[in-house]
Amino acid sequence: MRLNLKIWRQKDANSKGQMVDYTIKGVEGDMSFLEMLDVLNEELINKGEEPVHFDHDCREGICGACSLQINGEPHGPDRLVTTCQLHMRKFNDGDTIVIEPFRATAFPVIKDLVVDRSAFDRIQQAGGYISVNTSGNTVDANATPIEKEKADDSFYAATCIGCGACVAACKNASAMLFTSAKVSQFALLPQGRVEATERVQNMVRQMDLEGFGNCTNTGACEVECPKGISLENIARMNREYLNATVKG
Amino acid sequence: MGILDSKVPSGPLADKWTEHKNKINLVNPANKRNIDVIVVGTGLAGGSAAATLAELGYNVKTFCYQDSPRRAHSIAAQGGINAAKNYQGDGDSAYRLFYDTIKGGDYRSREANVYRLAEESANIIDQCVAQGVPFARDYGGLLDNRSFGGVLVSRTFYAKGQTGQQLLLGAYSAMNRQINRGKIKPFNRHEMMDLVLVNGKARGIIARDLKTGEIERHSAHAVVLATGGYGNVFFLSTNAMGSNVMAAWRAHRRGAFFANPCFTQIHPTCIPVSGDHQSKLTLMSESLRNDGRIWVPKRIEDAQAIREGKMKPTQLKEEDRDYYLERRYPAFGNLVPRDVASRAAKERCDAGFGVNKTGEAVYLDFASAIQRYGKEAALTSGMKDADDKTITQLGKDVIEAKYGNLFQMYEKIVDENPYETPMMIYPAVHYTMGGLWVDYNLQTTIEGCYCAGEANFSDHGANRLGASALMQGLADGYFVLPYTIGDYLSHDIRTGKIPTDSPEFDKAESEVKDRINKLMSGTGEHSVDYYHKKLGKIMWNKCGMARNEQGLKEAIEEISALRTDFWKNVKVTGVADGMNAELEKAGRVADFLELGELFAKDALTRNESCGGHFREEYQTEEGEALRDDENFKFVSAWEYKGEPKDAVLHKEDLVYENIELKTRSYK
Ligand SMILES: Cc1cc2nc3c(=O)[nH]c(=O)nc-3n(C[C@H](O)[C@H](O)[C@H](O)COP(=O)(O)OP(=O)(O)OC[C@H]3O[C@@H](n4cnc5c(N)ncnc54)[C@H](O)[C@@H]3O)c2cc1C
Ligand code: SF4
Ligand code: FES
């Protein structure tokens, strides 16, 4: 197929960016979206131009690095996939595809399609852990049985890949889905309960400090999340937060 | 040629590690505050090491090339992590895990290291559960296990198909706790470009800030490299796009010996290559071999009909299928070790039985597992005479619960539904057993330079068993290195801060800058990927699943010529003082072009077949690997002397005091 691409190009954090048009031929359905961009980049390099920069690494939907806004949707039109797992068979010959970085005040652009998501790290640093030493003097792993259902729910919350699509999808650029996934993972486990109050307060405080917006329950995040992280996590975090505030 | 001292403590195998820990010098907590440690790499090995070192009180700086430690390639590990917990009561023990690992590695690993690994394995699971890692559980609320290849017990812990993700996020959270306490300073989007030695000791690194292009100096009392494997020397592999050998290779050039570079693991169950545009290969976890049966058609006509799209695999009757692993290896069947399974697939495809367009694919079939699980589920839910449709649906539900994300991934890539038609798989490069040589303390041949995780060579011999890399990474990082490094650092309590304005740092920095300038000033014939793909083809065709003397000699010549061409004609666009993904790639590929040649040289030197290293000249009549213990029971450790062809071989003799060397048999 032959495609028209409109891609956001921006030299660096301090420059102004703009959309640039490219056409690309010989795209096959079996290619992933990023492989299509590889082909474009190879052409650009051969012409002596700078390739389009984008974040990527694992290319199998698990590292959370890839982060493109494709035709207005984070990770593109397919559901439950990241950009690297999106295949070109989802597009048709002659299509125009608009490719932009994830947009949010808390995610400033570094170059082209690469954004700075270190705010997510800082939210995790504020409380996304259980305070246990790692030198290995803990109790036997089977000492506390955990209901399968709870363990499974905790696992599902823990599968968030930290990509930021939820923020990019939200008109308020809220990071509630991301933050609540971690809060939930630990809130559902007995070993996480001990610090539950402090954790939710610290993580929410950091989230606000980073400049993410408020949640107005539009649910756009859940729709675009490549890992199917559920809105229930936000509800759970709200309960945890309320409890924490009542406790003072 | 010299003989290497592995510093394995004396005494009975089972007591070595405890005894060693008892004797090791310790650094008192007040002094630890005056000691800096650099950890390059934040995967399972580096992330866990950084967390424990910080917790012990050292000042830690971490480095990774991704934008966050959470994205290290450990995140992609799917199937599970081994531990000798014996929760299933099936006769497992530290000794059995030790024995399986040595045998699985085809008797080319160090007994004492492997025993320590097996000993610490149970501790890892306890530790991770305490940190809130949500492993899979059974209905009684206890931890569940599955089986991996090459063993007869069920000792693999897992979190669906995302075990690596959950373990890495555990290590990441432990790091975050220490970052929050100010004990770890993270340098993300930073690449280590060189190791700095002062008076023969590793005292820091030169790093490039990948956002700004700035070249930085960082000093420390010791440097830990946990930078992962070098499978990307093959261009196509299951590794992440950025996985590289740069850090290890720079250390090698500064004096760290590189061990067993030719020991590479080709994983039997990956999604086959679909075309030239392909940028990487995707693994389908080994755990699938618990339930999937591997086959090709019995008759070559049927294979041909399938390739031409005239026949569907589901149309082929049971008796017309060749379940070749079950046929050749009745004792282990579909769960033979990876090297054996990969070679068997290649053998069938080379003989013309491949089932996709390119003829390089075999089937992994879940139909019988779906029926088996479906019947069981029907019975346990009280349906005595469930119909076929119900049984099939129930069976699919069980398979989905176990492997759902893998099946989804397969469907997205291949555009076929693996619940309805068998998966197609083919071997692909996956893991590198070789790496920097380390002694029992995980120290390389450079004083103060340590190496952990996939980047070192230590525990897996010539073939790694499934679910053992995660175990090794975390054992190295949480429980081994933080202690053994203390012995070294105890001599540094009065050293004070290491200055970065010394001539050694000046020199290292200017060498890094020169190299970058040289890469940027190539006359510009070809892109970096052009060279990387060429290198990958040479490696796959001549240093891949089967190797022979002539091919290896050719590979050495071809890689050397390609390297010369690269330095003359590579084209890197953009600028050096800003973000430049092409420049990053160029630096990595330049090192692969050196490593690749050493790899071939190592394979050429090892005149035997063992584990993943299969030399066609050395095989039994049935086509199994033929080891030569008399002449090759050693670790090859290469010393850098300029060009790879000049590298000097040092040997570490492997001593087996507790295990009798046998021909590996899975029949
Ligand atoms: C698809 C896949 C599935 C797997 N499944 C399993 C499994 O089920 N069970 C199992 O036991 N093993 C599995 N493995 C193997 C296992 O995941 C790896 O061997 C292991 O995770 C490696 O961990 P590591 O910490 O050594 O390195 P990595 O996790 O690769 O981390 C390397 C780190 O080094 C950094 N780095 C590299 N170079 C530089 C540089 N020059 N400068 C700065 N930083 C640098 C990176 O940023 C990263 O942080 C799998 C591997 C793959 C690829
Ligand atoms: S919640 Fe979903 S969309 Fe948001 S960061 Fe996690 S995986 Fe990405
Ligand atoms: S590149 Fe890792 S999730 Fe897309």
TrEMBL record, chain A:
The keyword Cell wall biogenesis/degradation belongs to this UniProt entry's keyword annotation: no
Gene3D superfamilies from the UniProt entry: 3.10.20.30, Alpha-helical ferredoxin (1.10.1060.10)
Domain of life per record: Bacteria
SUPFAM superfamilies: 2Fe-2S ferredoxin-like (SSF54292), alpha-helical ferredoxin (SSF46548)
Cofactor annotation comment: Binds 1 [3Fe-4S] cluster. Binds 1 [4Fe-4S] cluster.
GO biological process terms held by the UniProt record: respiratory electron transport chain; tricarboxylic acid cycle
Annotated EC: 1.3.5.1
Keyword 4Fe-4S: yes
Cofactor: [3Fe-4S] cluster; [4Fe-4S] cluster; [2Fe-2S] cluster
Pfam families, alphabetized: Fer2_3, Fer4_8
Catalytic EC class: oxidoreductase
Family of the protein in this entry: Belongs to the succinate dehydrogenase/fumarate reductase iron-sulfur protein family.
Protein known as: Fumarate reductase iron-sulfur subunit
Species whose genome carries this gene: Euzebyella marina
From TrEMBL, chain B:
Keywords: Cell membrane, Electron transport, FAD, Flavoprotein, Membrane, Oxidoreductase, Transport
InterPro entries for the chain: FAD-dep_OxRdtase_2_FAD-bd, FAD/NAD-bd_sf, Fum_R/Succ_DH_flav-like_C_sf, Fum_Rdtase/Succ_DH_flav-like_C, SdhA/FrdA/AprA, Succ_DH/Fum_Rdt_flav_su, Succ_DH/fumarate_Rdtase_cat_sf
Reaction(s) catalysed (UniProt annotation): a quinone + succinate = fumarate + a quinol
A GO BP annotation: anaerobic respiration
Family per similarity comment: Belongs to the FAD-dependent oxidoreductase 2 family. FRD/SDH subfamily.
Active site: residue positions: 338
Any one Gene Ontology molecular-function term assigned to this protein's record: flavin adenine dinucleotide binding
The protein's name: succinate dehydrogenase
Annotated Gene3D superfamilies: FAD/NAD(P)-binding domain (3.50.50.60), Fumarate reductase/succinate dehydrogenase flavoprotein-like, C-terminal domain (1.20.58.100), Succinate dehydrogenase/fumarate reductase flavoprotein, catalytic domain (3.90.700.10)
A Pfam family: Succ_DH_flav_C
